[in-house]
Amino acid sequence: MKPSIPRGTRDFGPVEMQKRQYIFNILRTNFQLFGYAPIETPSMENIGTLTGKYGEEGDQLIFKVLNSRIHESKDEKKELLKKEFNTSLEKSYNSELLTEKALRYDLTVPFARFVVTNHHQLTYPFKRYQIQPVWRADKPQKGRYREFYQCDADVIGSNSLINELELMAMMDKSFADLKIPVLIKFNNRKVLTGIAEVLKAQDKIIDITVAIDKLDKIGKEGVVKELREKGLSDIAIQQLEPLIDLSGSNQDKVIVLKQFLGDSAIGNQGIAEIEYLLHHLSSIKIQHVKVELDITLARGLNYYTGTIFEAKANAGTFTPSILGGGRYDDLTGIFGLKGLSGVGISFGIDRIYDVMDELNLFSDVVSHASTTKILLTNFGETEQVYSIGLVAKLRANGINAEVYPDLVKMKKQFEYADKKGIPFVGVIGSNEIANHTIMLKNMTTGSQEEVHFDKLIEILNA
């Protein structure tokens, strides 16, 4: 039977990997430019670390890992499995069932656990970036995978809104470097809490935020239907509708919000934070991205408490969310470490890749699978030994080089270079060995010249 891979996962060949590494390198460079240091966390976490942090819908998408040692009989295991996967995650990790671990759902909750675990070794504010895969038991579709990479940057141990401004500047720089036209939407969870207060539906805050966050996916009618199913009154829905339909400039929206929120203390605190960011956008010189206040943006994760971000591609036919993030005031508190506020963003590398592919933004980046700059041919044992010594000198000068390993016809060796996209081929025969030269062929132009080593280095470094 032909082998296959699980749905929602993908193989990446050399061409794809070069494109992905291009994205990784830009983001890594910008993370470090803004003062963030790298960390990594395990692929698996204890299931109790993850559950209850993402909301009911998010918890259902966590991949649970079966315990490796189970002593029950086959039939007993089958019954336990059936019971396990019909049990809510909150209950399952406390029960004597089959799972104690789970694949990480995102990088933020493991980061909070990392901070608590290593609290006394860290310097605050602690700024970290993390580039690793995550897993979600979601229905696979374009732009939505079960295994995908996230590229996160978070700062924890600071309440200052300067951190939000810095992250917006980082988004602008990164998307400019990637050449992706982007719309950054932002909102504030305090405003959403204030809205729930005005609607006298404080107990429905999670239901309200989860529902309105789906506006782009299910439309206004779908949102209204879901709110009604969650028990929100028709009067409250009617009050909420003008905000769902809100349009105009960022300042126009702020004015409407102030009127709607009235005397809500937490709502007005959220407005003040929004106005601070809008006022100082010019200071951080946002040039590439468009920034829009979006009252329907909620981010479905329960741990957000302040500013929330989402970025969408603003060109082409495929315009998914390619970044998300926000402020969380007490995420470490769930692990026993109170009073550490943090804020962060997460770049969705796989969706960024798909967007760049559609917009043909890789055309000037990479056109071939090979990273090799020059291939040295193989004429025979004597020439091969000479080439091995020469390729070592090339690598010592920082040039990616390889020797064709087998003694075959020159035509096959040139075809190899052509198919791999190697730009230069060095032909070494007895004359070249005697003259301490190399016959260098440019595979793009077809021209060739006999050069000494210093000239060779100069051409390959050009």
What strand order characterises the main sheet? 1-5-6-11-10-9-7-8
What amount of the residues lies in strands? 15-25%
- In oligomeric terms, what are we looking at? single chain
Biggest sheet character: 8 strands, mixed
* Helix/strand class: alpha+beta
Which architecture of the largest domain would the CATH scheme give at its second level? 2-Layer Sandwich
CATH class (first level) name of the largest domain: Alpha Beta
Helix content: 40-55%
The gyration radius over C-alpha positions equals 28 Å
Terminal Cα span: 49 Å
The CATH superfamily of the largest domain is Bira Bifunctional Protein, Domain 2
Q: Describe the global form.
A: elongated
- What number of domains? 2
Helical region count? 18
What would the CATH topology of the largest domain be? BirA Bifunctional Protein, domain 2
Describe this structure in words.
- By secondary structure, this protein is of the alpha+beta class.
- The protein has two domains: 14-43 and 104-358, Bira Bifunctional Protein, Domain 2 (BirA Bifunctional Protein, domain 2), CATH 3.30.930.10; 374-460, Rossmann fold (3-Layer(aba) Sandwich).
- The chain has helices spanning 14-33, 47-50, 55-59, 74-84, 89-92, 108-117, 162-178, 189-198, 205-212, 215-229, 234-244, 250-261, 265-280, 349-358, 381-396, 410-420, 430-435, 453-460, and strands at 37-38, 44-46, 64-66, 99-103, 126-135, 147-156, 182-188, 290-293, 307-313, 321-328, 342-348, 374-376, 401-403, 424-427, 438-442, 448-451.
- The strands form three sheets. The chain has an eight-stranded mixed sheet with strand order 1-5-6-11-10-9-7-8. A five-stranded mixed sheet has the order 13-12-14-15-16. Strands 2-4-3 form a three-stranded antiparallel sheet.
- The chain is elongated.
- The two termini are 49 Å apart.
- 36% of the residues are buried.
